[in-house]
Design goal:
Length: 127
């Protein structure tokens, strides 16, 4: 019923760009905050960015500020993550996740408490 599907991952050279998409079905974006999380091999999952369900405000982890941009298209029920100036340290499986508007996990980039998760898309940054 509720489904989040990521796409747009792939191989890119350092300094390059990718745009990830998170297509949402089963609910509309008005009632859920959407976050992007990533997990690199041997590393813990970390929050990357989140966009609010109410006013569309955004938050980013320090390591991606100025390089990544999260946005949403309500007509398409899709959330995007534009990634510029990619570096090898950005290599990871990227997941999108949804949280009800009553929650407070997404705004603090905490994965625990997110209600629904996609299966992930792999981003590899290498020359």
């Amino acid at each position: 019923q509720v489904q989040l599907v990521e796409s747009g991952g792939g191989l890119v050279q350092p300094g390059g760009s990718l745009r990830l998409s998170c297509a949402v079905s089963g609910f509309i974006l008005d009632y859920y905050a959407i976050g992007w999380f990533r997990q690199a091999p041997g590393k813990e999952r970390e929050g990357v960015s989140c966009i609010s369900s109410s006013d569309g405000s955004t938050v980013y982890t320090d390591s991606v500020k100025g390089r990544f941009t999260i946005s949403r298209d309500k007509a398409k029920n899709t959330v995007y993550l534009q990634m510029n100036s990619l570096q090898p340290e950005d290599t990871a499986v990227y997941y999108c996740a949804a949280e009800t508007s009553y929650g407070s996990s997404c705004v603090f980039l905490r994965g625990n408490g997110m209600d629904y998760w996609g299966k992930g898309t792999l981003v590899t940054v290498s020359s």
